[in-house]
Give the backbone structure.
Amino acid sequence: MATRFERQLEQLHVEMITMGSLCEKVITLSARSILGYREELARQIFSTDREIDRKEREIENHCMSLLLHQQPVAGDLRAISAALKMVSDMERIGDQAADIADLSQYIPGETVCGEPLNIGKMAEYTVRMVTESVDAFVNDDLELCRKVIEDDDTVDSAFIEIKEKLAELIYSGHPDAKTGLDILMAAKYFERIGDHAVNIAEWVEYSITGVHRNGEKYQEISEG
């Protein structure tokens, strides 16, 4: 029979999966908004961003309750500490998806559909990275979280490719400079979402191994 603490940890996993699903949803919606802005779509994005904010607060409260009342140790303590760090990055993902939605109303959808500016494909990469980073946390999957970290190179390469092609297109006059800058910012937000997925994966790695990629053991987290 599971202890109360084990049930609370399972509930934390459920809440993390829920927040991860909201992040997947908001990134997907923001990619759709880039391909064709609609007011209703923007409302869904902003509403989902608010849900992510609420879920962040719920998970933070849950984690603090576990830390204060259950006094976990070793791997359980690292997992809870990592979750507190992860939800901060997940909240930023929601914010950046909302920023993309703001930009999308100034970007003609036909300028980013398919080649040469395939932002939709870049968005697909970031959705997968976020999904896999949360899955890695729930399943203690070290190999998967390291795959997410490696996949960031693909997103970075996609951003560089879009930036270079965009420079060529602006030089030719299509799109104009203002629209080009809006497209570049949208691509940059997707690139930053990929960075947040990497941060999440690095905290998963820490929760499993006890060592963060900066080489420190984060004793101040695990002891306080």
Q: What stands out?
A: The mean pLDDT is 86. Helices lie at 4-35, 39-69, 74-104, 119-139, 142-172, 177-209, 219-222. The radius of gyration is 19 Å.
